[in-house]
Design brief:
single chain, D-Maltodextrin-Binding Protein, domain 2, elongated
Length: 340
């Protein structure tokens, strides 16, 4: 048995969660994939996968072996790439994970430009707010908000996450404009609850240099980011979204900023990857590219509000900013716990 090929087959089965899909992506008969896994288990004298008619799952031994295989295969790929013609640039499969709104608004629109620069890199993009196990899930790097807590990871700051408090004119006509935190007791907010814990997220303001959580009553709660902003636009209550997401609505007058002298805590946006002896060329170029991309967007680079316009530069060209939400990122003041 070719052990190297067996490792490739095994990791592909785990990643695809399917013998059939793994066989298709590898260009092998399904019977060959099945036999390879059986021979691998026989050689190792352990069961790697629990198989049922509906799903696959790793055994504890399988999880440990998968982790080692991923590292070995990555090292082999990096070693081979260092001997390729340098004019071809980095190559291989790059798996990343980003918050959904950042993925849709910033990353996806710029992918064609990245592909033009690095045509031999195959991107696998996961978009979620859940914590990912970078080793277990073979993720090369993640984009996250908050301070890095995991000492096994390296983070490079690429931007600043800022939020504001705002409301629709229809809400202001009915309830007026709050002038202070104390007056929020006479107002109502659209509540956002975490899809992971079910907990309604308190608002937060900087008071005397310290974050202060504030509870605001409300009549509607959602756990979807876009629905959150839509509720605000429809006058259901005050909202506290990311500034870059609602910039078009502020400029059109569909939303009005309130409590502008009270800022919510800002948080760093970072691209993070696991510590390694050698940073993979494909990860290195992606880190450099995504840093450049965020710096081209004033709304993500921490520029003062008066310095940005209705448009934000993506991948070297000007594209209008669409409405989308990153409110769940605002919500986690102890964000490192939830995303790293």
């Amino acid at each position: 048995m070719d052990r190297f090929q067996a490792m490739q087959v095994f990791t592909r089965v785990v990643d695809a969660n399917s013998f059939t899909l793994a066989a298709d992506t590898l260009g092998l008969p399904r019977a060959t994939v099945t036999t390879t896994i059986q021979n691998l288990e026989r050689m190792l004298q352990v069961r790697l996968l629990n198989r049922t008619t509906r799903r696959l799952s790793l055994t504890p031994d399988g999880a440990a072996y998968y982790e080692r295989c991923v590292r070995i295969l990555a090292d082999v790929e990096d070693a081979e790439s260092s001997f390729h013609d340098v004019t071809r640039g980095p190559r291989g499969r790059l798996r990343i994970d980003v918050p959904p709104s950042m993925g849709r608004l910033i990353l996806i629109p710029a992918l064609c430009e990245f592909h033009k620069r690095y045509p031999d890199i195959e991107l696998a993009i996961g978009m979620s707010d859940r914590p990912v196990d970078m080793v277990q899930e073979a993720v090369d790097c993640v984009i996250r908000v908050g301070e890095l807590q995991d000492s096994s990871m390296v983070a490079k700051r690429i931007g600043t996450f800022e939020s504001l408090t705002c409301a629709a004119p229809s809400y202001i006509e009915r309830h007026g404009i709050p002038k202070s935190i104390d007056q929020l007791g006479d107002h109502q907010a659209v509540h956002y609850f975490s899809s992971r814990s079910g907990r309604v997220i308190d608002w937060s303001f900087m008071v005397d240099g310290k974050p202060t959580d504030v509870q605001v009553k409300g009549v509607v709660s959602v756990n979807d980011a876009e629905a959150y902003v839509t509720c605000g636009l429809n006058g259901f209550g005050l909202i506290q979204p990311s500034r870059y997401m609602v910039a078009p609505h502020l400029q059109s007058g569909a939303l009005v900023e309130v409590l502008s002298d009270l800022k919510s805590p800002s948080m760093p946006i970072s691209v993070a990857y696991l510590q390694n002896r050698h940073l993979s060329p494909k990860v290195r170029v992606f880190v450099d590219w995504i840093s450049e991309l965020f710096q081209q967007c004033p709304l993500m680079s921490g520029c003062a509000p008066q310095h940005f316009s209705k448009e934000c530069a993506f991948a070297g060209e000007r594209k209008p900013v669409r409405s989308n939400s990153l409110h769940e990122l605002i919500a986690h003041h102890n964000v490192a716990e939830s995303v790293f």
